[in-house]
Amino acid sequence: MNSFTRYSFTILHLFLSIMFIISTTSCSDKNIYELSIEQEVLVDTLDLIGVNFYLETSASMRGYVNSNVSGNYPLKDLIPFIVTDFDNTFAVESNLYTISDKKQKYRYSNAKFFDQLRAGKVFTGKSSKLQNIFADVISATGNGIVSILITDCIPDLGKINTKTEGSKITSQLYNHLAGNKSLGVAVFKYSSNFNGTHYFNRENNNGVPQTKRPFYNQILNDRPFYIWVFGEQTLVTKVLSKNIIKTYQAAHTYNLPLQKVEVGLLKYPKSGKISITPETNTILIKEIEAKRPATFTIGLDLEEISDLQKNQFLDSLNYRVYPKYMAETIDLMIKDKNRLLLEKLKDKSVIESSSYTHFIQPTLYDFNLGTEKIYLKNFNKEAEWINNTDLEDDVDISKSDLENKTFGFQFITKAFSRAFPAENESFQLTLTKQEKR
């Protein structure tokens, strides 16, 4: 090869190298996406000045304590613990009420109330119209007061067929909720043994001797009861953040925005042909295809979030991807710090030293580089357990059919889901394509 040929080859090679660098730089500039977060943040302007506890004391509730019988009867211990923990944690005035056909303030000591609870003597009320109980409790909530209702949530319309006319309960309760946009609600489901002698089905068994009732002298298993929390949104959030209500089987919130969380992109762990710059919260996407997907990691600091609201972050079913056509090309994994540290990571010290407690890892299997924005939205979807708990009828059924079920539960929950639909996202992560520099 003569000197001219060598010179020409060198110039050509240099030219191609420059063009490659220009092309790569141009492509890189076009494919940078910045992560941002949007969420409704409540302004905490109210102080908690009092907590009112309401225990439904209809005769059927007595089956949850079944005094002097061994078994799983958490109610008689749960209420004393919760009342005491609230008193010690918030140092505000608390009051105990019994409520069935009407509410009555308990005028003796907490200690006496707890003794009467354990003995079942406090359950002296008549059949309860649940819509009235909820209405009374919600109406008495406000001005710095949080109300806590303990009930079995079994509706009763008296002589009216509750099975066919239960929507009357829904509409009456909805009337008390509609327009009350500042009301925050949480519901906790518990499971208990139950003395079947005290079970009243929708036909009520009124006037029927105990020995003739369907579950006389039988122990029913996994009978639900519920703790409801009502109050101004910031106050309910404040109460829940202390995690005083524990050991529940399931829980859900209505109309309760999430607390503010810190979010950030991590340089690692990642995979695929992408680059992360945590300082600017940006991702450089070089190439993504099914054979070589890309995974990146978003850190969340949920340290101050209540256990109940943490579940909303951690359930991948609560997330939706937009544009919708991308939903089938993205998988989400959500992990806590301990789980992530069990994996083979490039630099575990980054995870160990970070303030993040949990991590969202999206994996992209395909990507259109023309996409301007990608949204990852979190919704407070109504939990599956709510629909699964509802029992259409409780007449002429076996005791196993009653397990984990509450007759007419939907008549209560439909009022809340109608008044506070989960139409808007609670939390949104957005990847926005940056303009070419």
Automatic annotation (TrEMBL):
It comes from the Bacteria. This is Uncharacterized protein. The lineage of its organism: Bacteria, Pseudomonadati, Bacteroidota, Flavobacteriia, Flavobacteriales.
